[in-house]
Every structure is written in structure tokens, then in C-alpha cells.
Amino acid sequence: MPTVEVEGRTIHYVTGVNGIAPGRRNIIFVHGAGGNAFSWQNQRRALDRGVNIICVDLPGHGQSPGPGCASIAEYSYWLNLFVHSLSLRGVIAAGHSMGGGVIIEAALEDAEMLEALIFIGSGARLRVSSEILESLESDFKTAAEQLLRKCYGPESSKRLIEWGLEHLFGEIPEVVMADFRVCNDFDRMDDIAQIKKPALVLCGSEDIMTPPKYSQYLVEKLPRATLRIVEKAGHMAMLEKPFEVNASIIKFLATL
Fold first, then answer.
1. Rounded distance, CA 7 to CA 24, Å?
2. Which residues does 2 contact at the CB level (< 8 Å), separation at least 6?
3. How many domains, in total, are found in the chain?
4. How far apart are CA 75 and CA 73, in angstroms?
5. What's the domain range around 119?
6. Residue 221 sits in a domain of what CATH number?
7. Low-confidence ranges of the chain (pLDDT < 70)
């Protein structure tokens, strides 16, 4: 699988079957806390038509070795370097949960790099309760499993949830815990109105991790945003309801 060297660190990513073809738009998918590139498996397979699909493992996640980052701004810095290392143009950034915070930072710090943004189950602030942070530190495996189960909506299959647990427990516990801390520190509520790029905001109707009010706030503040509520989906809408999410993304791309 492809990798690039960014300031001495290896960053792993996966693409659609057509790879990165010249002359096409590029969608970079950025996973959430404790996630990896395969969080986007249903988008990587289905959307590789006329656009390049690039799903990145953030530092310390998936097959990108080493420690994670100490802030969402630092993850955004690595994303910027990753984009430039591949010499990409016409970049659309899609972020889930923490990944949404990463692309907000990217849009604020380097507006010219991005053509548009796609948010899934995210927000301008990603507060995490002290109870969750403490439980992860005291009994990571139990707390992480309970937390992940809350991420899925009522129609999610047992098989899908077990797949999610397998991937979560494949991540480094210290990196996962740090992800939740950096989410808790993230707050760009007063700044997102500066982002003038077109944006698609998707949220599961049953998302209890980043409830729909988070997405509604994004749409209220972003000057060029469209909201789509994915019915009966939880926090992992791109995995739970891939057909609906992909259809919304395709429709959005057609407006650009």
C-alpha cells in the first residue's frame, strides 16, 4: 500500500482502484479519533468515479507509525504536508468527527489548499466529558468498547460493530486516549465563519457523540454550507448508511 515520507515520518494512505489519476479532483478522507483509513472503505470503493479517493492514516494511526499528535492543529499541519507531498490540486477534504476538526484547521490555515469541505458527525467544538476521559485512562478496553458501541445507530448490525471493535483495538491505546484529549481541547466556534469554501455537512439523526445540533451550528456559521441528516444513523454514518452518505457526496460534487 502507498506511503509518503513527510519530515522523516512515513504516512500511509489508500486510494480507490484507479489510484491518483491526473486531471481529476481529489477527495482526501480524514478519519476520527481512534480510527484509520479503512473507516472510509465504503466511500473508497463506491466514489472512485471521476474523482481520486485518498484515505489517509494520520500519524500514529493505522499503518502510519510513531506517536500521534498533541493537538488537532498539529494533525492539520501533517495533513497540509501530506497534500503538498503528493502535489495535489483541486482538493476536497472530508473529515469524520476529529477529522472534521482537522479539516477546519486546514481551511483556516491554508484556504487556498482546499476547494471544498465535507463534514460527517463533526463540529466546530468537540468536547469530551471528563467521565469518558477518566474511564479510558482507568480501564481502556472496557471504556473504549462501551464508547464504540454508542457510536452506532439502532440499525447497525452486530457484524459491523464487531468490525469496528477489531479496528479500534488494533490502534495504540495511548494514541486513542490522546485523540480524545485533543478533541476536548478543540474549539473553533468563533472562527469558522471565516471559511468561505462550499461545505457539505452530514450527521446521523441518532448520533449521540456529536448530536445534530453540532452540525446545525456548522451550517449556521459557514457561509456556503448544506446540511443533510442521515436518518437512523449514528456517529459512524459513513459505515452505517454508505448508500445515503455517498449519494449526498455525489450530489454535492455536482454543485462544485
1. 27
2. 12, 13, 14, 15
3. 1
4. 5
5. 3-254
6. 3.40.50.1820
7. none
